[in-house]
Amino acid sequence: MFEALSSKLNGVFDRLRRRGALSEADVTEALREVRVALLEADVALPVVRDLVNKVRERAVGQEVIRSVSPAQQVIKIVNDALVEALGGGEGDDGRRGIDLNAAAPVPILMVGLQGSGKTTTSGKIALRLRTKDRKKVLLASLDVHRPAAQLQLATLATQAEVTSLPIIAGQSPMQIAMRAMDVARRELYDVVVLDTAGRLAIDEALMEEVAQVKLATNPHETLLVVDAMTGQDAVNTAKAFQDKVGVTGIVMTRIDGDARGGAALSMRAVTGAPIKLLGAGEKLDALEDFHPDRIASRILGMGDIVSLVEKAAANIDQAEAEKLAARMQKGQFTLEDYASQLKQIGKMGSLQGILGMLPGVGKIKQQLNDANLDTSILGRQAAIISSMTPRERRTPEILKASRKKRIAAGSGTSVQEVNKLLKQFDDMSAMMKRMNKIGQKGLMRGGLAALLPGAGNKRPF
Fold first, then answer.
1. Domain edge (last residue) among 85, 119, 143
2. Are 62 and 147 found together in one domain?
3. Longest CA pairwise span in the chain (Å)
4. Which H helix or E strand runs over 359?
5. Residues 21, 76: one domain?
6. What is the pTM of this model?
7. Which of 260, 267, 313, 415 could staple 42 via S-S, CB 3.0–4.6 A?
8. Phi then psi for 42, rounded to 5 degrees?
9. Residues in a beta bridge with 289
10. Is the pLDDT assigned to residue 452 strictly greater than 50?
11. Cα separation of 393 and 342, whole Å?
12. Residue 65 falls inside a structural domain
């Protein structure tokens, strides 16, 4: 979401690093470029003005000018200002996600415009509450205007393995909400997610309906769902809902799209409501907590290793990973092991998403684009391996022309793709054998170069 902004800010900081000692004029020029970059990223003008002023106050002074590493000092000051703009820093209580600190059943009211991803987000939240918080969740759709909206939520409830309120034709949103709360109290549900109707634009009828439901159900959380792709329109929508209804938090959806990121930077300052969750994909598990400090690190090209480790811990089977590592150390690596690796990586999301969390990847973004990184290759390779017999996976050397044709036909790929997979597997197997042969000490002496083809004939130092 922040690619363009990150690229421009890193360009500014790279020029600062080359200067060595900084004058006040250098800092002023850099801040002018930061201001332009923020405006081009669709950040609200008052937010840009406030952020740049904060940075200027802290940066234009002896602390930076005489610092051992003045450029790094400026970057830290910008980082701190970004964290504050995103809702972190002083006064941040550290709570993330949904607040359930209330008597059960806890009502959560979902509001927003039509098309923002509100119903899908309701399903994501239900799954999250069931799996991570071990809560008994009831989903209820109050949308009687959009065709099949209630059926859509019922389908999502089935996928999330939670209960959806049975549909009774002809009931009003208020009647559905009261029935949901009554069922939740009688059947001892922990949380009730109330998915309200949306409109294509803000109008009095929408606000009145939401306000009445809120008054009747007294929700502990009122979450506004906004589409990050709509930029400043998302900020305007959030301000309107905050002024007329009142929201406790914001969920930004489609952050994996080509959004400029200005809405996220503007949201807290303009509305006063914190961003609580981020939706990064259509899958029901594609929902993550919003961490201002981690987002600021991503914007400044410093990556987000903490989120990457958390994602790996949540999605990778530790026992399976340890078993695979032991086999690799012994040089026992088959196509079945390779398929297991592909599956583990696939669970963590898109390759772009994973790469975006690594420090410094923004600087090689163009090279990655030029390399035409195909994110669907993992799925195709997994399909190729699935089309093999158990014997073929364990002994790929028996794969000749006729077998390759059969595998390609079975996986919907080409013989060339099968050959490419086998070549990659051979390269990986050879590297693991070299790693096992030279040992840890040899790897430390020779570095990664010791694992390259032909390295065995050279001295590793």
1. 85
2. no
3. 81
4. none
5. yes
6. 0.66
7. 260
8. 75, 25
9. 277
10. no
11. 14
12. yes
